[in-house]
Specification:
This protein is α/β, with parallel strands linked by helices and about 270 residues long. It folds into two domains: about 1-200, Rossmann fold (3-Layer(aba) Sandwich), CATH 3.40.50.300; about 210-270, no CATH class. It is built from eight helices and twelve strands. The chain has helices at about 40-50, 70-75, 90-100, 105-115, 130-145, 160-170, 210-215, 255-265; strands spanning about 1-10, 20-25, 30-35, 55-60, 75-80, 150, 180-185, 195-200, 205-210, 220-225, 235, 240-245. A six-stranded mixed sheet has the order 5-6-7-3-8-9, sandwiched between helices. Strands 2-1-4 form a three-stranded antiparallel sheet, with no helix packed on it. Helix 4 packs antiparallel against helix 5 (about 130-145). The longest helix has 15 residues, at about 130-145. It is globular and about 60 Å long.
């Protein structure tokens, strides 16, 4: 589905963002894309969408060059950017005017998701808050049933109840022939819905594994004494420590994505 090979990219004369980045992903996954500020998460989505062109190397999506922006390619892709503009029209008119570009668009699903978010199709986008508009575009993205859906910071602007609804609809409206990638700084907003993790740092991909593989290699523990276990990585918390240890038995623990991300950024080579 996605093949990125030896990708280099920089904005004008600024420092190189990617240096020989490589990434392979197939359909049937909800992928969390994590990285520090400035590591190029949004840039990668723009490159995958064909909004930017690599300096060198290549990106192909289903064997298509995104930068060519062919209609057949665009009908299979939907990109939810962090910042966006919406026309000053009713939601139903936005759907009517835009859904025609997506052959698999599900109008019933769109209406269902609007109800989940407590929105009505007669509301005018002009009078909506940023958070309400974000809900509309998330609902629209899922209703396209596009083969590739890219979401950049989708939970920004959502209140806590809306974030819970977001997790619910993401888990309930994903099909096996789709690939959904979610970039976020709010790790806890996606830790229960992703089944694959990609982490960017130092101009490339430093981690690209399934959550299942992660559970088979490591246990995530809360301990009272930092020296009680032979931890690969630990952090102080109220009343003790959170720790990552090599898996030594068959018991699985809940993955702490935020802790694991911090451990990777600290020294990712210790996990390989």
């Amino acid at each position: 589905m996605i093949s990125v090979k030896n990708l280099d990219f920089q904005y004008s004369k600024r420092a190189m963002i990617y240096n020989q980045l490589n990434l392979e992903l197939e359909v049937g996954k909800i992928v969390g894309l994590l990285g520090k500020n400035g590591t190029g998460k949004s840039t990668l989505f723009k490159l995958m969408s064909g909004l930017l062109q690599p300096k060198s190397g290549s990106i192909t999506i289903s064997e298509t060059d995104p930068f060519r922006r062919e209609p057949s390619f665009l009908s299979k892709l939907f990109f939810v950017p962090e910042e966006f503009d919406m026309p000053p029209i009713r939601v139903r008119d936005f759907v009517k005017n835009t859904a025609v570009f997506y052959p698999r668009f599900d109008y019933s699903l769109m209406n269902e998701l609007l109800k989940e978010f407590s929105l009505q199709d007669g509301q005018n986008l002009k009078g909506m808050s940023y958070g309400q508009k974000k809900k509309v575009i998330i609902a629209f993205a899922l209703a396209t049933k596009a083969e590739l859906i890219l979401m950049d910071e989708p939970t920004n602007g959502l209140d806590i109840p809306s974030k819970n609804i977001f997790r619910k609809i993401m888990a309930g409206h994903f099909e096996e022939d789709q690939l959904i990638m979610i970039s976020t700084h709010q790790v806890k907003d996606i830790d229960t819905i992703i089944d694959h993790l990609v982490v960017l740092d130092e101009g490339g991909v430093i981690y690209n594994e399934s959550i299942f593989d992660l559970t088979q290699k490591y246990n995530f523990l809360t301990i009272s004494n930092e020296n009680a276990v032979d931890a690969i990585y630990s952090e102080a918390v109220l009343g003790g420590y959170k720790a990552i240890v090599s898996k030594q038995d068959h018991e699985e623990t809940q993955v702490d994505l935020e802790l694991f991300f911090n451990a990777l950024i600290s020294d990712y080579k210790q996990f390989f």
